[in-house]
Design a protein that fits this description.
2 copies of one chain form a homodimer. Chain A is an alpha+beta fold. Chain A has 3 domains: 152 residues, 2-Layer Sandwich (Aldehyde Oxidoreductase, domain 4); 173 residues, Aldehyde oxidase/xanthine dehydrogenase, a/b hammerhead (Aldehyde Oxidoreductase, domain 3, Alpha-Beta Complex); 321 residues, 2-Layer Sandwich (Aldehyde Oxidoreductase, domain 4). Helix content of chain A is 28%, strand content 25%. Chain A is built from 20 helices and 31 strands. In chain A, strands 3-5-1-13-10-11-12 form a 7-stranded mixed beta sheet. Chain A has a 6-stranded mixed beta sheet with strand order 8-15-16-17-7-26, sandwiched between helices. The longest helix of chain A is centred in the C-terminal third of the chain and has 28 residues. The mean pLDDT of chain A is 95.
Chain lengths: 766, 766
């Protein structure tokens, strides 16, 4: 976007590469405090059961046990991002297998785990709700009898087992479908996917003698953790300080709290530091996972390929607690029309409590599930009309000035370039046709919401410290933000140090989620840097005896008189003077509150949507070349091309890393990953039984095409890239399988059995 | 000052009382990091010597030694608050006995100390400068040959061994002295006093794999430590994060760096954490101490008791490095006229490098030394005129509208009330006359300078976190600032949590020094809280559908409509809404830069003064009842009364604590404490040989009279109280000895030998 950039646009190794390569990065597992205890959890063996009583005597009697807590030991407090429905330890009822019903702190982990096994809990088993369909049956048992009385952050449409119900409607979809030349329809099902971050969830809490708690944890937001823990324990937020060590991946499951309330409760009860890290099985069973979706969709088109209508109906499994789920439902509906001009669209969905672990945020936030339905329907229309699927997408793509579903503005849009970029890079036209299984899909995704801050400090010696409160979960945001800060102040990146998030000292940052850090935090960084620049110029103006307006920043940390190359002064001298004349470092601060409306009430009728303000869009077009073994039915991606519009690639290497990682994670979602419940118990909570693709399963080439349609108010034009790359993948692979075999699958994952079934005409329409 | 205050004015136990009582407070000695090494120092055996070379082989060969560093291993960097003259390890020359010439890091402290002893350093001894008089002799050896080329933060008058020369003059002092009815004159000498904080100096540094350093240390300012360490090692400041554990007293010697550069250098060299804590002997020998003063003073008065002129000449021993000393000189001169109207005054002083440890800031900052001269002269005038010494002081006390010496404004002045308060409390009139030795003295002292910030955050649940960057060194500033914040927001003090200082996350705060935290940081807290109030009212106005201007804060964390008791809303509800509507907590920030001029060029001629902006004054009048044993000459304070004008006592219990502690420390300075050099070597660096008064030496009653003459812009009227209490003590005791015995002493400490000498006519005028 700007040929003069010198820090932004550089493909830099991450700032923390050295400590990671040397094995010196400190994760939660590496931390210890003097006198530290270790925690363990006793999980419920039942999916739904009333808790009649506890016998903790044997556990307490075990040598080395410091403390046993059950739900009876904690007050009546509940947490939740949208609905306050979740106690830190099951209280009165257990609502899923594995839900903590008691926790133990002991001198070592083995003793803690042994003690947890010695706790006797008396249950009365209750009928369980194991699917959303069961949950909305008229006589269904209630997962939350007191739902009506729970505090809701947004006005919610809910009742019975329905935690949230949302509708978005534009135009007259039934009339438009009736008038369409062709209509495709289908029912789709996607599987629950586990996050499987390389680092399981864990936390360490320490209480000082004044009762204030310091909490280190694997997390995506020190601020959300602070709010969650405090509301779930009835602790004033000012009494809890949240910090973060390095984090080994998040993907959404470390955004809201996991075990943090448990370690804080144990630390408060014992007065000693307590650490608890989940083993892999527990991490599978009790953290959170991607929502399984049931989707019914109809899309209508004219014979010339113009899309005219889409109707979407979704049913989401919420699991036992609300967590981020009302947001996932609402966001999936907002995305259901895809990045296309479709004049008439309607989407309606329900989120239903069941007796499973709480589902929650996972890279894509409902968009990959809904895009699987939408983008396979686009391909079916192309097939019916005999059109090239990329041509059909290009023809209907949103153009400049078009609005998003619901009426929100779209200020930058590189979709057409993504389609042409993927087409060219993949050699689409030449390569199409069996035996090659070339499939494509398009999508858009947002770049953040809510609030974020930045503080930029120029210290006495001219070096710069950036503090944003954003947790780098391994994706490289610290590096990108340092680049943005360096670019704004025209200094080398190494001049900028990045402070670690700290609820006591960092500006508020909602979290590392929703593809938001580069765009929203980056904007705050630029604004804070501009304030620093203004102050630097004012001081320099007094020193150089000229107007601040006539001064400019020059690369390398200098301020000079415009048009006079020799007249300049370094940051060091300006900041030394500022330090003594103005009594401290030069500081710029900014708080960005995202305020672009996602809905225009003049265009759409909306109920129950908890996202009033989102709306900066990244775009993608993905092509996958899929080979299908016609004996086993096993589908494998040979090669992939992902074209993404990121506005501006702040760190192109990191952008490519995001795209490659997202492709492989999407491929797992498409082909192999599925959490399977046997009754109420998760049957495959191990890496042996739950198949995450490895490098060996990855295509030999994942080619990234970076498109830069600059967002007008983005930092140097940038938009988010954390999630967009996964959204298109299942649909592109499904379309590739269809291209290779003629078989259309409507259920994820597309396992060899299901592919073979579809190839032999069995199908498995849900 | 304000009958409605509910948080300010309460005598609260300090917030951290519980952790201290339980022994759980964490000081630097309590901290450890995995893989931590221990440091030790090899000090110079010579007061002044050229370093010809090192042999470190034996030290390096000792098992367990990780690193040995000498001045040759570090670059040519120097630190200093006013003059950049001090290398972190002696380089080329050693300038005082004990100065670090090499440092070692080893697996344990014993090994490190053994290794330090194994280092061979070849020296060429040089003639040493052991007194300021020697230093200004024409043929004196130079302590710093390169003084002219050193960087000076302020334009300094210096040269030879003179580090700084300062003059302040108002009126025509010689003419006024010539016209006076009586003139008293004298020469005074005060001894070097050691700080003897209960916690010796220490630090712990850890380097992450990216090269960024975290430094915990016993300090009075994380920001000054950051600047000192970085300039002395050539490290960019953005690469160093400074934190503070609890601090066991400072009194000035922990304001600038002590061993912090050494541990950072060792940590950078080894890549491992390094901790170094001085033993008591090292803490005496190499940190810093109160400057010994030589003072010549003349004071002239008219027969009616009107003071008309004062001329002051001082000579300060700087020690080997500049540190805060140019400030101490300048400040002592500004204080030399005392809190009186004296139309003609002149003060001139020189600060002279010697081959002793660097002297530096110590509670009172030169004022107790100069007040010893000035306030004993006031008593001599009263004696000569046959006036009551308190009457003489009251007659000449500064009044409303009067200016300070140099021309600075004095906006609040409770001196007259202090005099009357002390008079009444001590029963002065009835008690005067032998055998009672009733002595009095008055003084004023400033309340801070330079810059300070505050951030007040109202979290989602309405609890409040205050972050100021001010280090509580044990005096209770965290509690006072929490009270100020609570008062400004009308919430209970326990609702406010205080964040620990952190250069990454705290607003800039110059330091806990110059009696500045309550006044300057307190002002910033009030201003930040006012911003919070404004935002709370704006949100509440929208919620209650009324104008923000019609709303008021109500005690307990509520906002209500003026005149309508029932219409109100809690902080919790407002901040929850703010969190979602505005996307984050309600935050108020403020940076206060002290800007009241200390000098009015129309009134005074000033050269070399590095304090352009100070000028909020606390006042005191102290009365001591001294008993002198006429056989041994031992003076003991039987009882004392200290009346202080603190503007407003935020925490009266803490104010009393400051006054009592200051009295006892001043009594040690007056009667027993003296660092004695034998040639260049400190002869009494132990608590056995250096006599600090204990509880048993203290008078059975130290009575505090709190006077509140509110400072117009102070937080709820408050001014500083950290230092004022010590300033008057030596003079009050000296005046008490004179009242009891007729003997006038002009040298501190007033040991039994010196008292006996003076009683028997020997005198010891220096």
């Amino acid at each position: 976007m700007n040929a003069a950039t010198q820090a932004v646009g550089l493909g830099l190794a991450r700032l923390e590469t050295r400590e990671k390569v040397l094995g010196r990065a400190q994760y939660i597992a590496d931390l210890a405090r003097p006198g530290m205890l270790h925690g363990a959890i006793l999980g419920s063996p039942h999916a739904h059961a009333r808790i009649l009583g506890y016998d903790t005597a044997a556990a307490r009697a075990l040598p080395g046990v410091a403390c046993v807590l059950t739900g009876d030991d904690l007050g009546d407090h509940r947490m939740g991002a949208f609905i306050k429905d979740e106690p830190p330890i099951a209280k009165g009822k257990a609502r899923y297998v594995g839900e903590p019903v008691a926790v133990v702190a002991a001198e070592d982990e083995a003793t803690a785990r042994q003690a947890a096994r010695l706790i006797e809990v008396r249950y009365e088993e209750l009928p369980a709700v194991l699917s959303p369909e069961d949950g909305i049956a008229p006589d269904a048992p209630l997962v939350h009898e007191d739902l009506a009385s729970y505090f809701k952050v947004f006005p919610a449409v809910c009742g019975g087992n329905v935690a949230s119900e949302t509708t978005i409607a534009e135009g007259d979809v039934e009339a438009a479908l009736a008038a369409a030349d062709i209509v495709v329809e289908g029912e789709y099902a996607t599987a629950p996917q586990a996050h499987v971050a390389i680092e399981p969830c864990g936390a360490l809490a320490e209480v000082d003698a004044g009762g204030r708690v310091t909490l280190w944890s694997a997390n995506q937001s020190v601020f959300r953790v602070q709010a969650n823990v405090c509301e779930s324990l009835g602790l004033p937020m000012g009494r809890l300080r949240c910090l973060t060590p390095r984090v080994g991946g998040g993907f959404g499951n470390k955004m809201e709290a996991h075990v943090q309330p448990l370690v804080v409760a144990l630390a408060l009860a014992t007065g000693r530091p307590v650490k608890l890290i989940l083993n892999r099985e527990e991490d599978f069973e009790i953290v959170r996972a991607r929502h399984p979706f049931k989707v019914r969709m109809r899309t209508g088109a004219r014979r010339d390929g113009t899309l005219v209508a889409r109707d979407t109906e979704v049913l989401l499994d919420c699991g036992a607690y609300g967590d981020d789920s009302p947001g996932v439902l609402g966001y999936a509906l907002l995305m259901s029309r895809g990045p296309y001009r479709i004049a008439h669209a309607c989407a309606h969905g329900r989120l239903v409590y069941t007796n499973k672990l709480r589902f929650g945020a996972f890279r894509g936030f409902g968009n990959p599930q809904i895009a699987f339905a939408g983008e396979t329907q686009i391909d079916r229309i192309a097939e019916r009309l005999g059109m090239d699927p990329l041509d059909l997408r290009a023809r209907n793509a949103l153009r400049d000035g078009d609005r998003w579903f619901g009426g929100g503005e779209v200020l930058s849009n590189g979709l057409a370039q993504c389609i042409e970029g993927a087409r060219a890079a993949s050699g689409w036209t030449a390569r199409r046709g069996a035996p090659n299984g070339l499939g494509a899909a398009c999508a858009a995704h947002i770049s953040g919401l809510l609030a974020t801050g930045a503080i930029v400090r120029v210290l006495e010696d001219g070096s710069i410290v950036l503090n944003t409160g954003a947790v780098d979960i391994g994706q490289g945001s610290d590096t990108a933000l340092a680049q943005i800060c360096a670019e704004a102040l025209k200094v080398p990146v190494e001049r900028v140090s990045v402070a670690s998030p700290d609820t006591d000292g960092s500006p508020y940052n909602w979290g590392t989620t929703a593809s938001r850090v580069t765009y929203t935090t980056g904007r705050a960084v630029v604004a804070a840097a501009r304030e620093v620049e203004r102050k630097l110029r004012e001081h320099a103006g007094e020193m150089l005896e000229c107007s601040a307006d006539d001064l400019e920043l020059r690369w390398g940390g200098r301020i000079g008189l415009k048009g006079v190359p020799d007249k300049e002064i370094s940051f060091l001298h300006v900041s030394l003077r500022a330090h003594w004349a103005a009594g401290g470092p030069i500081v710029g601060t900014n708080t960005l509150v995202f305020d672009r409306a996602s809905v225009d009430p003049k265009r759409a009728v909306v109920t129950g949507l908890p996202f009033p303000r989102i709306g900066v869009f990244s775009f993608a077009c993905t092509v996958a070349d899929v080979a299908v073994d016609d004996v086993t039915g096993k589908a494998a991606v040979r090669e992939a091309w992902s074209a993404v519009d990121v506005g501006k690639a702040i760190n192109p290497g990191a952008v490519e890393g995001q795209m490659e990682g997202a492709f492989v994670q999407g491929m797992g979602f498409a082909l192999t990953e599925e959490m399977v419940w046997d009754g109420g118990r998760l049957a495959n909570p191990t890496l042996a039984d739950y198949k995450v693709p490895t490098t060996l399963d990855s295509p030999h080439g994942i080619h990234t095409v970076i498109v830069e349609a600059p967002e007008p108010d983005g930092p140097f034009g940038a938009k988010g890239v954390g999630e967009i790359g996964i959204v298109t993948v299942p649909a592109a692979i499904a379309n590739g399988i269809a291209a290779a075999t003629g078989a259309r699958l409507d259920r994820l994952p597309m396992t060899p059995e299901r592919v073979l079934d579809a190839m032999t005409g069995g199908g498995d329409a849900s």
